[in-house]
Design the sequence.
């Protein structure tokens, strides 16, 4: 079945540091890939997505490129801020009739001033 | 656009009672809604998928008689935790997708259930 493996963390960075959170996946066919962010006490928000190989999703300074050859979708940001502190989830959707999402375990990011 | 609300945002109930959680799509018609459970510091576990007007499809290991899901309209789905026990305490999150949304889901803010 489909699965997502992501760096579990926690990750602690200083403000303005470079961020990478690794995510790799296993899926049949051609899934769509997502990064969701969850701020403390809140639900999930879509951060970015990519629907086909070599697509780059980007939002709020975050980027991730759909790499089919390495089955990866690593999340990066050049300069993190304290407000980026949250849990980040990598996910995939294999399509099908109900478009179910398969999530990674999440990575807690803490950014210190 | 694409806003999903949940009510209540938190609830405390006594063991043995039932609790209903509502999930609403505020500005779009949700042909499919999903219910997830999230344990502390863990990922989301899909409990069930519901399509408007039909019975929910439960994931393996989820008790359908305990977690009753109703998707009576294109904007509302409810999850009822029946005869709740302390082990049912968790963060419950719903999501929804519209017919034209492909595989993108919009998530509600979640409901914190505590059973005493």
Sequence:
């Amino acid at each position: 079945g489909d699965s997502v493996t992501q760096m579990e963390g926690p990750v602690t960075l200083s403000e303005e540091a470079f961020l990478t959170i690794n995510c790799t996946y296993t899926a049949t066919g051609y899934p769509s890939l997502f990064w969701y962010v969850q701020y403390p006490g809140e639900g999930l928000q879509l951060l970015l997505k990519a629907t086909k190989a070599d697509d780059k999703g980007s939002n709020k300074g975050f980027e991730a490129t759909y790499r089919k050859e390495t089955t990866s979708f690593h999340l990066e940001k050049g300069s993190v801020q304290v407000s980026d502190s949250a849990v980040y989830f990598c996910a995939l959707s294999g399509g099908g009739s109900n478009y179910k999402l398969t999530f990674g375990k999440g990575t807690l990011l803490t950014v210190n001033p | 656009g694409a806003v999903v609300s949940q009510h209540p945002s938190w609830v405390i109930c006594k063991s043995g009672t039932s609790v209903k959680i509502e999930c609403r799509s505020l500005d779009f018609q949700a042909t499919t809604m999903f219910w997830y459970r999230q344990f502390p510091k863990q990922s989301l576990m899909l409990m069930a998928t519901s399509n408007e007007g039909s019975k929910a499809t439960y994931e393996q290991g989820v008790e359908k008689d305990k977690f009753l899901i109703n998707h009576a309209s294109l904007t509302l789905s409810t999850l009822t935790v029946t005869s709740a026990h302390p082990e049912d305490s968790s963060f419950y999150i719903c999501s929804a997708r519209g017919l034209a949304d492909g595989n993108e889901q919009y998530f509600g803010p979640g409901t914190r259930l505590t059973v005493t």
About this structure: The radius of gyration of chain B is 13 Å.
